[in-house]
Write a sequence for this structure.
């Protein structure tokens, strides 16, 4: 279903497993090993996320990250947000894209069985663990990619839509005039030893 290179490894995402292929240099030049017993349901969801590994949508409708040695699910709240809003029937056409500048993985997915393409988006920062969800009411996304116009300009996420036009995302708070709902959350935090704890202040920083 999908082949990707990570460092000196070749990662193969099959329908029922993830396989790593290594070059040994000996008489047996290549060896393969099954490193994960769940497959990839959406080949286009598999994307490289810098040095942390590759993220993909598994056959059990969970998002995973793998580095060729260890494969683990994304945090619980991220999975919960996806599974509560995704159309399982259309999970196989989900599309992933990575913004390296923002260290963020975006998954575009179907939110209804009546949709032909993709209206939902779940975005996960693979460095900080923060995530957010948004929904496009005015368009259905068909494909998405990261685009860098020059070395001095940050990445842009551009998408093709079901109206046969190409759009640039992250330019405001609406979908070509239609309001986009956006929900932001963080996963669970570790406050150390069990007991009553109080959060007395929080600082929110937003960068454009």
């Amino acid at each position: 279903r999908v082949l990707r290179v990570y460092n000196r490894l070749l990662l193969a995402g099959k329908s029922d497993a993830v396989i790593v292929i290594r070059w040994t240099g000996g008489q047996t030049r290549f060896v393969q090993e099954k490193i994960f017993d769940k497959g990839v349901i959406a080949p286009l969801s598999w994307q490289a996320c810098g040095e942390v590994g590759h993220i993909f949508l598994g056959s059990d409708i969970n998002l995973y990250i793998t580095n060729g040695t260890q494969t683990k699910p994304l945090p619980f709240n991220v999975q919960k947000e996806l599974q509560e809003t995704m159309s399982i029937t259309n999970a196989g056409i989900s599309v992933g894209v990575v913004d390296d500048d923002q260290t963020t993985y975006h998954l575009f997915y179907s939110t209804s069985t009546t949709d032909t393409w993709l209206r939902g988006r779940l975005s996960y920062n693979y460095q900080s663990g923060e995530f957010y969800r948004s929904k496009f009411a005015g368009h259905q996304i068909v494909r998405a990619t990261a685009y860098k116009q020059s070395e001095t300009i940050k990445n842009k996420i551009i998408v093709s839509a079901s109206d046969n036009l190409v759009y640039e995302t992250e330019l405001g708070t609406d979908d070509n005039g239609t309001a986009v709902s956006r929900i932001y959350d963080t996963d669970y935090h570790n406050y150390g030893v069990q007991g009553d704890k109080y959060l007395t202040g929080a600082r929110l920083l937003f960068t454009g």
User: Anything to note?
Assistant: The chain has a mean pLDDT of 85. The first strand starts at residue 2 and ends at 6. The helical segments are 76-85. Residues 27 and 168 are 50 Å apart (CA to CA).
